[in-house]
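Mods, move this if it's the wrong board.
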Amino acid sequence: MKNLHPTTGNKEEIILLSEETDRNYWANRLGVSSEVLKSAVRATRCITLNQITAYLNQQKKTISIS
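Not the wrong board. Structure tokens:
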């Protein structure tokens, strides 16, 4: 039977910091250092890409306003 309700786009990407290669991948993808990425995860207490991206964008706005 055909799936009438495709779920594409519903998957949230998870940022895992436990492995250095994963941490470096996400840091490069987001254009930040691995330390900034770790700080963002600690600050948001979240590991989803959407939440981390929103936090980093907010931080960039705050820095540019100052």
